[in-house]
Amino acid sequence: MRRTAKIALSSAASVLLVLSACSSEGDGTSGVGFEDCDDNPLECNSGERIDGGDLVWALDSGWNGWTNAKAETFSLSQLTVIEPVSPGHIDVLPDGSDDLDTATWDAEPELINEDPMQVRYQLNPDANWGDGTSIGYDDFIWFWYAYSGDPTKCEACTPPSTVYGANVESIEEEKENSFVITFREGYTNPEWRYTNVILHPAHIAEANGFTDWQTNPEVMAASVDYFAETPPLEWSAGPYRMIRAEVGDYAIYEPNQDWAGDTDRTLDTLTFQAFNDTDAIFTEMRQEAVHGTAPRRFDPNIIDQLRGAEEMRHNVAPGAAWEHITLNTQGEFLSDVELRRAVFTAIDVKRLNERVYGNATDELDQKLNHLFGPDDQYFVDHISQTTQGTGDIEAARQILDTAGYTWDEDDNLLSAEGDHVRLDYRVIADNVAAQTKAELVQFDLENIGIDMNIDPFNSADLTSMLGEGEFDLAQFGWTANPLFAAVPNQQWHSASASNFGKLHNDDLDATIDRIQQTLDMDEAAAYANEAVAILTEEAYVLPLIHNPALIIVSEDLVNVRDNWATPTRATYNVAEWGFVAQ
After folding, report:
1. Is 77 part of any domain?
2. Looking at residue 464, which CATH number applies to its domain?
3. CA-CA distance, 105 to 502, in Å (whole number)?
4. What are the CA-CA distances from residue 460 to residues 78, 119, 466, 492, 507 (Å)?
5. Which of 210, 283, 354, 452 could bond to 205 as cystine, CB 3.0-4.6 Å?
6. Alpha helices in 308-361 (DSSP H)
7. By the 8 A CB rule, do 90 and 194 touch?
8. What is the model's pTM?
9. What does the pLDDT look like over 111-149, one tens digit per residue?
């Protein structure tokens, strides 16, 4: 059972719902099952389920590890495959309300002191790891150390963010199943209710040889590596238990009989299967080998095919994921901010969005703020104040000329040292839309004399490619949600392992730190916009568009619907999935 209450956040929660209502394709035969999602987002495509069935859900990319405690393995596909076995916390639902996982928690987190900030967490007494072991104190400590960024706790660990772990002062068990986390002086978080504090079972680490993880930071790091490399076949705190898996390929689950939730799971098995592209998924769905998907990327031309596929239900709406181009600020050439500004100026974002997504949605405007949507109360247009994304070749050339760049007789761009400017653009292989975008960018940069090489990579290698800095330009997506306070630290702070382009700006770091020094949402948002302004001036990340979100399900699949407000989207209620009772 989950307990639901209305969210008290930035208006970002309602913004994307409004946008979704404007562009849903839930009418006629093209959206049967989703036609009432705008008016009834929590119950659309719902129905009574039969007992039994083997459901196959397709992912449009693989994954390279089993934990989100390492930046190198952290990805949306990884989050998805770990979700059915992980302890829950508070999710945001499709209607903007928030949802406490009462299988794990007995009550919502409680702020018991502001200075220093102290938060009480109360576990459900029945919450367990599926092997007879209760969730407890050591699990809080393991999560803290893994996300601390502190080499005295976890040697050479690279969590995707240290916003939480680096600011914990202590964790105490005040009584059975009740824990108080005390944070460092000066640290606050306006979104403290939504902070995750548990991930993996500490006793499993100990059972596999990492007995000294609390006192030896090298052993602690080794335990993180263990969870990254080992599929969670020994444990589950979620509604399903993983029974077989191959990293980057598939994971198969059956109902977890020890789960403390009270939602009946009707499926015999659930399978997450990775594919390289949506064309392959669509083919498998026509053959009834796959029952559904909510891809992060898709060829917009597939929409025409879906409109004629009566055995499938689909919906397209503005999603939470947004695409961008990130530059490697430590690269041979792109360490120069003036070159970065010229590159972003030369790229015609409007044309790119129209060419790639014009067949899928009318919502083609460039994203103009890295954090907030255009109807959000905190939205400030930072991009239009610059030439970034305009495709203004003359302006881009002027930036370069002023910065001391020249061109040879063949119009090849030369650095101030006389070197030809050559850049590598990394793009996901076998993805038509991504390849089209890369070719458009290549054309734009040729117009300012840059020789740009398009270098494909396997989707499962995304995080490792980014983490190792093997790019000059990289096109990928972040998934937004109604929470914003932790995002700048994770993506742009110089100390973050997820700051893939290695931007280092002391003013930006200081501004990001201030976001976590207030409980006032308005003040935090003001600091967040200051951070976006600095980021934009650095020409580090060029926002493109909020990706249109596509979901496809077979006509006999019920209780499956998209959720714009959570990174894993449709799998937020996986315990309720099933096949319709005829």
Report:
1. no
2. 3.10.105.10
3. 38
4. 10, 37, 11, 23, 34
5. 210
6. 337-346, 349-357
7. yes
8. 0.80
9. 999 999 999 999 999 999 999 999 999 999 999 999 999
